[in-house]
């Protein structure tokens, strides 16, 4: 019974911290306010999480790893070419459905942490992925129709659009529908590279 209560408290701390980081970002967040929200002392909170950065990492690291895997490995899953659109939409909407708030914290509230370059790293992962598709397209056409430098702005534009949807579509169904339309728009233009 005591173990269950400890896990409940740990989860309460994470939920309160998530709301704090969402509202104030890492720099403006207060461990004291988090502890007050949960109804524990700051000292007791530190028994669960040894510091503000460890608490922050507990919230954002899972979403960063998950999004990085979605971007890097979307074409590693067995599928037929016609289903790639549905797979990409499903992966991106599942991520938002489960981890919207931590993702917002990662992209907008990481300043002052070791994650402050997370958006850049995600852009890089997406750019590498796009560059692979451009190279495959060039090989298929037998000429260099697109240079590797094209991958970066395409990747940044796609990711920033995705982030904007997450920021402005809090209703999960509305968010999912918007992501579907957004990916469809990109997919129609890029499907030759797939």
Structure described in brief:
With 194 residues, the chain is mainly alpha-helical.
Gap between N and C termini: 53 Å
Strand content: under 5%
The CATH architecture classification of the largest domain is Orthogonal Bundle
Q: What composes the largest sheet?
A: none
Would you mind describing this structure in some detail?
One of its GO terms (molecular function) is transcription cis-regulatory region binding. Keywords: DNA-binding. Residues 30-49 bind DNA. It is a single chain. The chain is mainly alpha-helical and 194 residues long. The protein has two domains: 1-50, Homeodomain-like (Arc Repressor Mutant, subunit A, Orthogonal Bundle), CATH 1.10.10.60; 59-193, Tetracycline Repressor, domain 2, CATH 1.10.357. It contains eight helices and no strands. It has helices spanning 2-28, 31-38, 42-48, 52-73, 84-108, 118-141, 151-168, 172-190. α1 (2-28) packs across α5 and α6 packs across α7 (151-168). The longest helix has 27 residues, at 2-28. It is elongated and about 65 Å long.
């Amino acid at each position: 019974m005591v173990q269950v209560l400890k896990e409940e408290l740990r989860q309460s701390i994470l939920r309160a911290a998530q709301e704090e980081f969402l509202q104030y970002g890492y720099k403006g967040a207060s461990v004291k306010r988090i502890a007050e929200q949960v109804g524990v002392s700051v000292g007791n909170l530190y028994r669960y999480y040894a510091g503000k950065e460890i608490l922050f990492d507990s919230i954002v690291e899972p979403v960063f790893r998950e999004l990085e895997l979605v971007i890097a490995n979307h074409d590693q899953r067995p599928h037929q070419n016609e289903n790639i659109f549905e797979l990409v939409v499903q992966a991106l909407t599942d991520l938002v459905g489960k981890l919207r708030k931590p993702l917002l914290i990662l992209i907008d509230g990481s300043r002052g942490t070791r994650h402050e370059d997370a958006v850049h790293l995600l852009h890089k992962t997406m750019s590498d992925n796009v560059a692979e598709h451009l190279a495959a397209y060039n090989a298929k056409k037998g000429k260099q129709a697109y240079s590797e430098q094209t991958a970066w702005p395409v990747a940044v534009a796609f990711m920033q659009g995705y982030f904007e949807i997450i920021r402005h579509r809090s209703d999960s169904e509305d968010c999912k529908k918007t992501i579907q339309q957004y990916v469809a728009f990109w997919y129609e233009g890029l499907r030759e590279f797939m």
